[in-house]
Hints:
- It comes from Peribacillus deserti.
- The protein is mostly beta strands.
- It contains six helices and 30 strands.
- The strands form seven sheets. Strands 8-7-12-11-10-9 form a six-stranded mixed beta sheet, with no helix packed on it. Strands 2, 3, 4, 5 and 6 form a five-stranded antiparallel beta sheet that branches. Strands 13-14-16-17-18 form a five-stranded antiparallel beta sheet, with no helix packed on it.
Amino acid sequence: MTNYNDTYSQQHAGNRNPQYPSVPLEFNFREPYGTRFSQFRPIRHSTQDQLILPRGYKYDIVATWGQDLGNGEKFGFNNDFTCYFGSNPNEGLLWVNHEYIGNMSIFVTGYKEEPGGPKRTPEQIAVEKYNLGGSVIHIRKGTDGKWTIVKGSPYNRRITANTPINLTGPAKGDAAVGGVTQVIGTFANCSGGKTLWNTAFSGEENYEGIVEDWSETPGVSALNPAHYGWVVEIDPSDPKSTPKKHSMLGRFAHENAVMTLGKTGRVVVYSGDDANDQCVYKFVSDDVYRPELGKQNSSLLEKGTLYVADMGATKWVALDLNKTPKLRDKYKTQGEVLVNTRDAAKLAGGTPLDRPEDVEIHPRDGSVFIAFTNNTKHGNYYGQIYRLVEENNDHESTSFGYEIFISGGPQSGFACPDNLMFDQTGNLWVCTDISSDKTNQGAYKFFGNNGLYMIPTEGSNRGKAMQFASAPVQAELTGTWLAPDGETLFMSVQHPGEESEDVNNPTSRWPFGDIPRPSVVAITRQ
Ligand code: FEO
Ligand code: CA
Ligand code: CA
Ligand code: CA
């Protein structure tokens, strides 16, 4: 493996532009590079109700909505982020987010929303609450090469909208959260990340609509919206552990949270706020990471600075009462600033962007890739992926430069980038999220169903999108994660048949031919 830091400084010494501090201009890494996964013959766009992969690849269903985990628990709905734990490439724990139910309540609870029609019943809300949050599943690859759940494993666990979760950081106990130190439940869990101490981050994203739907139901207690919109930390290896919501990482529609280290060893976490005209954030801890402390490093997430990106000034602006005095005109406590992150960000000069989604760090050069899905309000239908480079290539820097790495559109072959993943050799994998009600229509007709694309970031194919997977009808592919040996790609197939209006006549019958069932798949080479 190339020692990247040495190669980087040799190639780029004296090649720094202050406006664009350290974006690597050209690479000469030897080709071919890539994992076995990156050597495939690209597929074409498709509108078929199938999960289509390149020739030579197959998938198994690892977990499907409602599946019995063998301990009285069932796998939740609309699986999104997946994250593998353990160094054994054939057996480990998979954390899986369960995001939302929405229109698909017709399959989950039988409820169909009609204008002026009845609200959900308390029983239906109870089913919805159980089906969201996340799952820990113990999985194993059999001698037949198929991945399955180890039923009844003590690690199998559900975290739901009913699970008690501890609040940490400045908002803990603050009046802005009603003075509480613990909240009930997590939902709207979209994407996430892995910490350096092997726990999972889960981003609470579109919680607002869910809080509203549930709170307006007669007979169901109203939820405090300030208890949601955080990043949750879960320890899959300890089934008895209480998850944490880290208020220092801000409160907004968190797509994901990706962790890395700065040059002095501080922990840095990047996160996008997936809504029209919202911002990109990063947190930098006060104290440094000490590997020997293991999971105790989690307390690093309780003290530090949350920054918002000012893309015009190319600066990170601190959302901190002491560092940005104008915040004091509006907020009295740091907890209040964090509960109101979006408004504080705008007050401080954060740049409204086009739905910032996943953020991932390039494994070779440390540059920060950010997916912007779209912003149809601005006529941005296809989205972009930015590549941001911190000054001195240091994640603790407060200045950066950036380029548009690739734009969605027919010229690149994909639209609406959402989840990002790097393989070990630096190829970028991009899941697309064209809304279910817009796929195969108008500006999106060209692209067929949503897909998964691989985009080399170096070499002669740099910036060329090659399609690896095509989703079933109205589904989105999300949550890609490679097993430690790079031989299995885990992936969620979320919301197939989302626009169905009739359970007897669904728009998708993936995967089993009856009703659509969100499922996690394991993709391997045949
Ligand atoms: Fe849940 Fe931003 O996708
Ligand atoms: Ca997403
Ligand atoms: Ca990701
Ligand atoms: Ca999305």
